[in-house]
Amino acid sequence: FSMVNGILMTPFGFTEPDRLVVVSSSNVERDITRAGLSYQDFKDIRARAKSFEGIAAETFRSLTLTDLEEPVRLPGATISWNLFPILGIRPHIGRTFREEEDQPGAPGTVLLSYETWTQRFDAHSAILGRDIGVNGRPHTVVGVMPERFKFPETQELWIPMGPIEDASPRGERGLQVFGRLADGVTED
User: Fold this and answer.
1) Are 102 and 159 contacting, i.e. CB atoms less than 8 angstroms apart?
2) What's the pLDDT band for 186 if we cut at 50, 70, 90?
3) Is residue 35 very low, low, confident or very high in pLDDT (cuts 50, 70, 90)?
4) CB burial class (10 A; 0-12, 13-18, 19+) of residue 3?
5) How many helices (H) and strands (E) does the chain have?
6) Taking the CA of residue 34 as centre, how many other CA atoms within 13 Å lie in the half-sphere pointing to its CB?
7) d(CA 23, CA 73)
8) pLDDT at residue 10 in the model
9) pLDDT value for 7
10) Whole-angstrom Cα distance, residue 99 to residue 63?
11) How many CB atoms lie within 10 A of CB 47?
């Protein structure tokens, strides 16, 4: 944990990284101990968990900016509205997602990486509130994440997961789920 904390967590300024945990499932019959969770499982856990201040999720997605001269495919992720607040990460400019933006049928919103903002949009602060094409649909830019921030690995765009993942079957287990332990709760 010390190495992961020093290399991965501290540079991003995660708030109280010792209270952050990964929530996973296991399948004893198949000897799988760290399987991902489905969106439906995530919603169930979030609704019932009492030991957590909050539970959030993310899953990798290839996302395409479609309103540039040439479409550009970038590594991205769908995330629950509260992922970055749980991690304690604040955008460079703008805000993170709101709960109502992470619901089925919500209008599209997007967070940009600092690098995408500078390389593709010339670092204009007027990007906030602007609609850009993501996967052929308009998404309003609500924030730009800090420089060098690409959580969880190389992501450059983030969109709310609810509008996309809500219809996913319970058998699709690709989500990484994170929790922030409530005060006084330890992972032991």
Assistant:
1) no
2) low
3) low
4) exposed
5) 5, 11
6) 4
7) 30
8) 47
9) 45
10) 21
11) 8
**Which position has the higher pLDDT, 102 or 30?**
102
Structure tokens at 85: 């607040």
**Exposure of 95 by Cβ count < 10 A (0-12 exposed, 13-18 middle, 19+ buried)?**
middle
Instruction: Give the model's pLDDT for residue 173.
Output: 78
At 90 the pLDDT is: 94
Residues 6+ apart with CB under 8 A from 167: 104
Confidence of residue 34 (pLDDT cuts 50, 70, 90): low
DSSP state of 146: P
User: Does 2 have pLDDT greater than 50?
Assistant: no
Closest CA to 41 of 27, 23, 60, 22: 23
pLDDT score for 1: 46
The structure tokens listed for 12 are 């991003």
- What six digits make up the tokens of 73? 């495919």
Per-residue tokens: 41? 């499982």
**How far apart are the C-alpha atoms of 20 and 161, rounded to whole Å?**
20
How confident is the model over 111-164, as pLDDT tens digits? 999 999 999 999 998 999 999 999 999 999 999 999 999 888 899 999 999 998
Tokens read off for 105: 């049928």
Tokens of 151: 């959580």
153 CB-contact burial (10 Å; exposed 0-12 / middle 13-18 / buried 19+): exposed
